[in-house]
Amino acid sequence: MNAVSAALDDKAIATGPAGPLLGDADFQYLRAFVLEHCGIALGDHKHQLVQGRLLRRLRALGLSSFTGYCELLRRDPHSELGELASAISTNVTSFFREMHHYDLLVDELLPRWLHEKRREGDRLRIWSAGCSTGEEPYALAMVLAEAIEQSGSKVDARILATDLSPQALETARRGEYSLERLAGISAERCRRWMLRGEGEYEGLACVHPRLRELVTIEPLNLLHPWPMSGPFDAIFCRNVVIYFDQPTKQRLFRRYAELLPVGGYLFLGHSESLHGVNDQFELIGRTVHRKIAE
Fold first, then answer.
1. Residues of the chain with pLDDT > 90: what percent?
2. Are the C-beta atoms of residues 250 and 259 closer than 8 Å to each other?
3. Which entry of 57, 163, 233, 238 is annotated as an active-site residue?
4. Partner of 227 at 20 to 30 A CA spacing, among 32, 215, 221, 257?
5. Which domain of life is it from (predicted)?
6. Residue 271: predicted pLDDT
7. Considering 53, 158, 189, 212, which one is annotated as catalytic?
8. Is 163 an active-site residue?
């Protein structure tokens, strides 16, 4: 048993049919911790959700109470941060989700960028911030690779993919997906960019090595200092800020603006908006924003 849980009086631990119960004091601590370290605001109505989501972490860590889990966070907040954030947030993603964003890239942005950067050595950079299990950056890599081939460009093109969740990043690095998760990819692109597994990998497909060449996957907490200095031609931050409170959103979008040149693009999720949050961008399409001011 973990030393933290061993020190607790098990008789004093409230339990239910599924395991230990999350007391109000521990819930308030977790709310404050998550807001400070992740920018995620948890309302009172999230009490049961947090309890249910974190029960698996307690079992994995050998802890018998939420008090023990809170003590672990107090002692070493960073070791568990990614697992905690992954547990309480919902990672919903798919290949070519919100297809109108990819249509804009294919029809307008990528051809223009590759023409403007046609000199060898010029850089093209896209950031997938909150990449989850990798479907978004690999879909971006598909359209980028196709555009490069069509243009014959020798541009130094890369996609940075970051997330806080260790489990999501592990899946993204493997680049292996069940065949059911390929539903958003056209048949032509599936044949070109996804390699079907055989034997023990039957029912799976992995991304083409060419896509791996274009994508760099790294852990990153959006609230912490960023190691990259930009500039990026486009930043995709879709279905991420829905969890953040207003001050965190304002800080985050200011930081995104710092890494984009005037004319750079910010792509948000279908339920997200910059209205009343940031005035450095103009809305040019459905959840597509272009930087207009320094």
1. 70
2. no
3. 163
4. 32
5. Bacteria
6. 87
7. 53
8. yes
What are the structure tokens assigned to 49, written together?
Answer: 């959700």
Tokens of 289: 């924003």
CATH class of 99-291: alpha beta
Which token pair is 82?
A: 């990614």
Is 192 catalytic? The answer is no
DSSP assignment of the chain equals --HHHHTS-GGGS-EETTEE---HHHHHHHHHHHHHHH-BPPPGGGHHHHHHHHHHHHHHHT-SSHHHHHHHHHH-TTTTHHHHHHHHS-----TT-SHHHHHHIIIIIHHHHHHHT-STT-EEEEEEET-TTTHHHHHHHHHHHHHHHHHT---EEEEEEEES-HHHHHHHHHTEEEGGGGTTS-HHHHHHHEEEP-GGGTTEEEE-HHHHHHEEEEE--TTSPPS-----SEEEE-SSGGGB-HHHHHHHHHHHHHHS-TT-EEEE-TT---TTT-SSEEEEETTEEEE---
Is domain 3-88 annotated with CATH 1.10.3720.10? no
Segments making up each domain of the chain, as ranges: 3-88, 99-291
Q: Which amino acid is at 130?
A: G
Give the mean model confidence (pLDDT) for residues 10-34. Answer: 77
